[in-house]
UniProtKB/TrEMBL annotation:
This is LRC23 protein. Signal peptide: none annotated. The keyword RNA-binding does not apply. Keywords: Leucine-rich repeat, Repeat.
Amino acid sequence: RDLTDISLLECFIHLRYVDLSENKLQDLSPLSNLSHLLWLKVDRNLLSSACMQELPYLQIISFAHNRIKDMEGITHPRLTNLRLEGNKIETALGLSHGKLFSLQILELRGNKLESTAGLSLPKLKNLYLAQNAIRSLEGLEGLGQLTTLHLRDNQLETLDGFCSSMKCLQYLNLRNNGISSLQEVAKLQVLPMLQVLVLLDNPCSDEPSYRLEVLVLLPHLQRLDKELFEQDERAEANKIRQERQEEEK
């Protein structure tokens, strides 16, 4: 509707669900009176900030495809799902960790992040970071409940930054990065629950015996790329691993 002004909404204080997508909004301050709001969608507007008055019951917000440059001023204590894909966010360091203790899903695809620093949220389960410019993995040690991490289409060349405190991570997508050595994959041995790994379109996926070598390094893996590991692959990987361990003695 090409709305630029939503001040009329100030008097509807009991609204629970609001969808203002595909307008021309630059200011959400009239929503600060909506203390019962549970769900807010403001995709495809002209917002340059996600900063809002703290809303005590707000659980889901989608700010997708705006012009937001940072993550400051998002402080809703019951927020579980935050979508910010398709913005211009360069850093997550402004996140209010002390306020977002309920956040479980964070969607940041298609931004301009160069690092994961600042994303250490204790309850986070699903983190989507595809199509950024991430070169370094930092501050991941606080993600103790994370189960799914998408890092497809970034600029990672090393896999430093993963740590044993990420004890719930099961699915890791690293497709189309710059990982050239399978020795980098060995750094994923610190992830005790990792079951699915996607490494397609990395230079290391062209190595001879690629699947077998990954399984030698990560014996608990269930699936690499799109294929489950067969029993005969496991047997061969176990044999190679034992032979190498014998050689090292």
